[in-house]
């Protein structure tokens, strides 16, 4: 697996020197479990705000910040959370995909069935987006016959306008709605220089095109394999699609797939969060509170933040003694309530 996180070791993920504390919170498994709030979380967040502790939310959800704000408010008894304070997995796409704004070639996007191209541009910062569902409805012969007739209703934009479109990149925004369909179309675009139309692929091969290498970049928003919900066991999520795609690409080409990864634990997402904290006047120690050792804790440890694991969500059944060194938390708390109580004490100089 080859991975480029989008930010190097020199990334500035600290806050200015000084006393006090600021913090970054995961959402799922920390403040809520499914649609239910963690007991006491609403009051704890209120105490954090009352103490004036700068904070933001860093989540690997694929929803927009606006939708994430509404979902979090619903779980926290109506407590308002500013969408500007929520960093989702694809927030860095605004910068990562900006070079493609000047290109006329579209971007093939996984996980946006039933979302109009206009909304994808506005909410997700992806220019010239075409969903895999639109490609399939335009080119049903591109996928196995068993998929015939299995697709989402047409969105406001209809199917893609140019059946011979040559994609400039692939962006995996959210969980695939149809693994077989999306796997086939993404592999075609990667191996055949952005082409999905059978005639264009035939011409590519007839002209001696190399189908055993990667021709266009692919961006992933969320690397998580699992996430914590109301179910007693962690649930599968977007990282599974990446794992399957990497395996298939390796089997077909003999090469490792070169991936540009956003989302935790990639440094680019922590850099993005640190920028927001600095804008809020954050100074002193930075605490990262999360439930996923391989995501929240690993990312925080890599950038030198104080990593705090909570025993809710995925963290409920984690044996910290057996974790790899980079996934071991600096501190462990029963819930976010106790974590916030400690952070407030640090911020107010009572620790």
Counting DSSP E segments of at least 2 residues, the number of strands comes to 16
Percent of residues in beta strands?
15-25%
| Structural Rg | 21 Å
Label the structural class.
Answer: alpha/beta
- Head-to-tail CA distance between termini: 43 Å
Alpha plus pi helix count: 11
Mean pLDDT: 87
**What is the helical fraction, as a range of percent?**
25-40%
Q: List low-pLDDT spans.
A: 1-11, 151-158
The gross shape turns out to be: elongated
| Sheet with the most strands: spatial strand order | 1-13-10-9-7-8
Largest sheet: 6 strands, parallel
Please write the string of helix (H) and strand (E) elements: EEEEHEHEHEHEHEHHEEEHEHEHEEH
GO molecular function: phosphatase activity
Keywords: Hydrolase
Protein name: HAD-superfamily hydrolase subfamily IIA
Pfam family, one: Hydrolase_6
Please render the helix and strand layout as text:
Blueprint: E1 2-4, E2 16-25, E3 32-33, E4 36-37, H1 41-50, E5 55-58, H2 65-75, E6 86-87, H3 93-96, E7 107-110, H4 117-124, E8 129-131, H5 132-138, E9 169-172, H6 179-191, H7 198-206, E10 218-220, E11 226-227, E12 235-236, H8 239-253, E13 258-261, H9 267-279, E14 283-290, H10 293-303, E15 306-310, E16 331-333, H11 336-347
Parallel strand pairs: 1-13, 2-5, 2-14, 5-6, 7-8, 7-9, 9-10, 10-13, 14-15, 15-16
Antiparallel strand pairs: 3-4, 11-12
Organism: Carpediemonas membranifera
InterPro entries: HAD-like_sf (IPR036412), HAD-SF_hydro_IIA (IPR006357), HAD-SF_hydro_IIA_CECR5 (IPR006353), HAD_sf (IPR023214)
Keywords: Hydrolase
């Amino acid at each position: 697996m080859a991975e480029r996180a989008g930010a190097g070791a020199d990334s500035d993920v600290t806050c200015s020197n000084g006393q006090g504390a600021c913090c970054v919170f995961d959402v799922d498994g920390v403040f809520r479990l499914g649609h239910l709030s963690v007991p006491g979380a609403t009051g704890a967040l209120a105490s954090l705000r009352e103490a004036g502790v700068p904070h933001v939310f860093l989540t690997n959800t694929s929803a927009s910040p606006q939708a994430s704000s509404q979902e979090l408010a619903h779980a926290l008894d109506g407590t308002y959370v500013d969408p500007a304070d929520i960093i989702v997995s694809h927030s860095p796409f605004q910068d990562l995909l900006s070079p493609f704004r000047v290109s006329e070639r579209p971007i093939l996007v996984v996980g946006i069935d039933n979302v109009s191209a206009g909304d994808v541009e506005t909410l997700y910062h992806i220019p010239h987006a075409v969903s895999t569902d639109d490609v399939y409805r335009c080119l049903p012969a591109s996928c196995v016959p068993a998929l015939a007739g299995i697709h989402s209703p047409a969105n406001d934009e209809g199917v893609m306008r140019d059946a011979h479109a040559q994609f400039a990149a692939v962006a995996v925004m959210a969980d695939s709605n149809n693994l077989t369909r999306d796997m086939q179309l993404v592999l075609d675009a990667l191996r055949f220089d952005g082409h999905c139309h059978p005639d264009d692929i035939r011409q590519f091969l007839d002209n001696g095109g190399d189908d055993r290498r990667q021709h266009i970049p692919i961006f992933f928003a969320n690397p998580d394999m699992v996430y914590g919900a109301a179910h007693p066991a962690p649930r599968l999520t977007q990282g599974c699609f990446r794992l399957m795609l990497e395996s298939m690409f390796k089997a077909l080409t003999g090469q490792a797939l070169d991936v540009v990864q956003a989302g935790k634990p990639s440094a680019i997402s922590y850099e993005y969060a640190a920028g927001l904290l600095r804008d809020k006047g954050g100074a002193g120690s930075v605490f990262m509170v999360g439930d996923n050792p391989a995501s929240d804790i690993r990312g925080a440890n890599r950038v030198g933040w104080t990593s705090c694991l909570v025993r809710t969500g995925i963290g409920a059944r984690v044996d910290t003694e057996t974790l790899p060194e980079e996934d071991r938390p600096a501190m462990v708390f029963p819930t976010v309530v106790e974590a916030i109580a400690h952070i407030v004490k640090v911020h107010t100089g009572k620790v």
